[in-house]
Every structure is written in C-alpha cells, then in structure tokens.
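Colleagues,

For the teaching module next term, I've prepared a clean inverse folding example: a structure given as tokens, and then the sequence designed for it. I'd like students to try predicting residues themselves before seeing the answer, so please don't circulate the second half yet.
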C-alpha cells in the first residue's frame, strides 16, 4: 500500500525484454534506499513493482506483459523521469489517500492552464472509470494523490500546486500525455459490496450488476 505522496524522482536506466517479460532498471540518487530490501514494493508512476535487484542508488524490477499492456510503462524510454514512492509503513503519515499501486486505466491530459501559481489540468478517463470519480474525492495520477476539483462525464480536473509541480513529473505533462489512473479504493469495494448476493453470480463483466441510481433505489439506498 502507498499514500500517493511522491518521495523522490527517478529515471529509467534501462528497459529490456528478457525471457518473455520486461526488466526495468530505475536510477534515483534522491531516494533513500537504506531501508529497502529485495522483495520490497516501490510504486513507479503509480504502478506497484517488486524490487528484484538493488544497486547503488538504483533498483531493478520485473514487469509482466499484462502490466505493460494496461499501464503507460510500455512507453518508457531511457532517461524518462519517474515518480517513486516506497511502500507504506505503520509509522508513516497517511498524507494522501490509500493507494494500492494497481492501475485501473490510462487517462489523457486534454487541457492545462495557469491558475495563480498553480496549474489546472483536465484529464479524460476511460468511460468505465467515470463512475468512480467524484468531485472533491481522491484520485491517483502516475502515483500522485490528488483531489478532484470538478467532474463532467468522463472528464475531471485537478489543481497542481507549486510544491507538487516541483516534486513530481506532473510539471512536464503536455497535452495528449497518457497517465496511469487509480481510482479511490473505497469506491471500487463499495460497488462490489452493493452487488450483495449477486456478486457470486458467474457472469461476464458486461452482464455484472452495475452500481446505478436504479440499483440503489431498488435496494433502499436512494
């Protein structure tokens, strides 16, 4: 688990296909590796990866083909900047929100504009994720915990304060930028919980019970 508060920036040292899967090498002189051991989890642009090798200010992680297909990691090139966060410990402040490091989908930056010293950014999420994004709720973008300012359909906006601009890769985003999105963990579990006894039905995703206003009304929640 993670908090969505980026600890350090890193960069891609290498990315190679080995034995049918990918090996990602990450360099980060700014990240404290003193408490990192093999098998630990580190979120890379919001993707939870397992440390398989440690070096001086550097670590390696194996990346499955599925992860490559479902996240923006497949587009990484050598030297690309990365958001990094080590896994949450019981004594760590939960400054953002509960983040699993399991990406739900890839979004796209469709607008950015100044807002005082901040930058207001609009993103388009995959249609299937829109129902999980709520105004003033939390969302994780490339591993960064952010508050949703506004929502309209599958489009939502966030405000990037100067500190976040300086400490993450968000400052480098340009129109059309693809980003990893993780919706609020509670929203995902709430939908499953609301399915009640229907959750055990063996149905395709397209036939599964959906969390809609009608469903809530039928079950006494609206």
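(Answer key — instructors only)
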């Amino acid at each position: 688990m993670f908090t969505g508060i980026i600890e350090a920036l890193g960069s891609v040292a290498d990315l190679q296909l080995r034995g049918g899967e990918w090996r990602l090498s990450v360099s980060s002189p700014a990240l404290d590796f003193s408490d990192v051991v093999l098998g630990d989890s580190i979120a890379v642009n919001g993707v939870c990866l397992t440390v398989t090798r440690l070096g001086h200010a550097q670590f390696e992680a194996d990346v499955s083909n599925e992860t490559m297909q479902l996240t923006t990691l497949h587009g990484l090139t050598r030297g690309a900047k990365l958001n990094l966060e080590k896994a949450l410990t019981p004594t760590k402040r939960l400054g953002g929100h509960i983040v699993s490091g399991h990406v739900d989908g890839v979004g796209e930056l469709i607008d950015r504009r100044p807002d005082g010293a901040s930058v207001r950014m609009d993103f388009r999420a995959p249609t299937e994720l829109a129902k999980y994004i709520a105004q003033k709720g939390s969302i994780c973008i490339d591993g960064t915990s952010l508050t949703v300012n506004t929502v309209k359909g599958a489009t939502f906006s966030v405000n990037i304060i100067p500190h976040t601009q300086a400490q993450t890769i968000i400052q480098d985003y340009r129109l059309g930028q693809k980003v990893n999105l993780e919706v609020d963990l509670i929203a995902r579990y709430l939908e499953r919980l609301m399915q009640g006894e229907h959750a055990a039905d063996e149905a395709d995703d397209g036939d599964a019970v959906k969390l809609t206003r009608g469903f809530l009304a039928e079950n006494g929640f609206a």
